[in-house]
Amino acid sequence: MAGGLPAAPGSAKRRRLRVCRQTRRRPAATDLARPRPTRTLNSSTRSSRPRLGILLMIGAIFCLSVMEAAAKYLTATQPYETVVWGRYLFHFLLTVPIFLAPTTIRLVRTGRPAMHILRSLFLAGGTLAGIGAISLMPLAEATALVFSAPLLVTLMSPWALGEPVGWRRRSAIAVGFLGVLIILRPGTDFLQWAALLPLLASLCYACYQVSTRLLSFSEHPLTLFFYTSLVGLAVTTPMAFAVWSPPTAGEWLLLLFTGFFGFAGQFLLIKAFQFAEASTVAPFIYVQLPFAGVFGWWLFGDLPDLWVLLGAAVIIGSGLYIWRRETRRAAAPD
After folding, report:
1. Largest CA distance in the chain
2. pLDDT tens sequence across 219-254
3. For the chain, how far is it from start to end, CA to CA, in angstroms?
4. Single pTM value for the model
5. Helices (H) and strands (E) in the chain — how many of each?
6. How many CB atoms lie within 10 A of CB 48?
7. What domain count does the chain have?
8. What is the pLDDT of residues 99-136, one digit of tens each?
9. What's the domain range around 126?
10. In a domain, 34, yes or no
């Protein structure tokens, strides 16, 4: 399931205007001698290629959907803790070569290690809950419930990020959670304890997204990338060996498969935000639902029923409305 998004686009636009004004003047010799600032997720030096950014976002979501389908397949024969550990193990092994170059090794150093660890713990918790959910539920249903994460991010924004949330977006949050109830159907046999796992994953992902926003103003994307895999591996290793069942050669190959597609998805996600504004690419995260539906039907014979489709439509509609209000907030605050 997809990871966090950068901060809202309004401040980035203002920074670009300031940069444009500054670049009109002739640089002094002392300016040329100054070290260049570290590129962050919110860096105003982002290349403006929105179509490429959209394609990269869709590619990222496709890779993450493939990873989840492979993980669900593996959980039929392996504990889900082992599956998550394998995902992080091969993700980390693929990440290490990036940081062996002299130009990138310095990015391992950070002045905010505690925040990196906390952010990575949120993602590890979300991944554990998410993989646990899809091991017990159809892919499309679990994915639809996890889509409540953007609603929780907006709900947390006033106290966590200092971002005001008006009555329109608060109303959209309420409608979005109505969609969650439509999928869960309280009072029916459908509601089981397993349905709480994607909601726990959603809460973890929301906290992960908020912490990503807080770090994105000062940290390089590759720094976030490194600590995500390192902390995730450290957390899941003892959990995996507590329930260890030696994987077969085919299962090792599938674990490598999940790690590779998890790595590729996160890497493409970072690149998408380097080529286009968050406001441009963020809505395309919802293509994960049709991907999950297709993989669930093709590999496992699962077809979402009418209630799941209706609830997913309500959640996605609320999320898109909130995204639209956030992109217009500077011009027309709610």
Report:
1. 73
2. 888 899 899 999 999 999 999 999 999 999 999 999
3. 30
4. 0.80
5. 15, 0
6. 11
7. 1
8. 888 888 888 888 899 999 999 999 999 999 999 999 99
9. 47-327
10. no
